[in-house]
Amino acid sequence: MFTKLPWWVxxxxxxxxxxxxxxxxxxxMGFQHQAVSHVTGTSTLLGLSLVNGDGAGGxxxxxxxxxFVIGAALGGLLVGDTALRxxxxxxxxxxxxxxxxxxxxxTLASGMTVGHFLASAACGLQNxxxxxxxxxxxxxxxxxxxxxxxxxxxxxxxxxxxxxxxxALLYLLLITGFVLGGSGGAYGFQxxxxxxxxxxxxxxxxxxxxxxxxxxxxxxxxxxxGTRP
Length: 229
Description:
Blueprint: H1 8-30, H2 40-52, H3 55-78, H4 88-109, H5 114-128, E1 132-133, E2 136-137, H6 144-158, H7 165-192, H8 198-217
Helix pairs in contact: 1-5, 1-7, 1-8, 2-3, 3-5, 4-5, 4-8, 6-7
């Protein structure tokens, strides 16, 4: 149940969605309209490249998809929880995401296409950090599922079922964060080009530091003891 989630989930989720939205905006504006925070569009483009016989473009898209998977695998390796728990491992994963995004910014600014793969891997890493708690998936790198869940909740409410206001609030915060992040990323790209990826990189690093400080401040609570606020 979402009512059992700690209070900091909304704050962290909003900030993560902000980071993903910013990175995705830079991808859309700089990678030939290729998203990096999710792989639906990239998979479609891969299918188109196969039909059009574009081997080089298809290979690039395939490597982008594989990079996302590798990033997600790193997230699962570093965190590995099936429940949402306070742990320094989240800070480590966020710092790694920040480093990969920074590397993507520097390589792309130098004209190296490997930065595309690094940006995709960073978003896959963040997506891999998503924890399942009480059967509820919290998404931060894409919003299709969030809009679907909101629509489903409204439909169920029309059938007379209870409406989980906290769940709806969390979803709206995630959507808002992703949209605002997209605006920030687009503005940054207009002025800084690919160096704008340093903005979500800084956001990930900042969140890691804040999270680590909060977790360390909990006296008498082991890192794996659960989600006490």
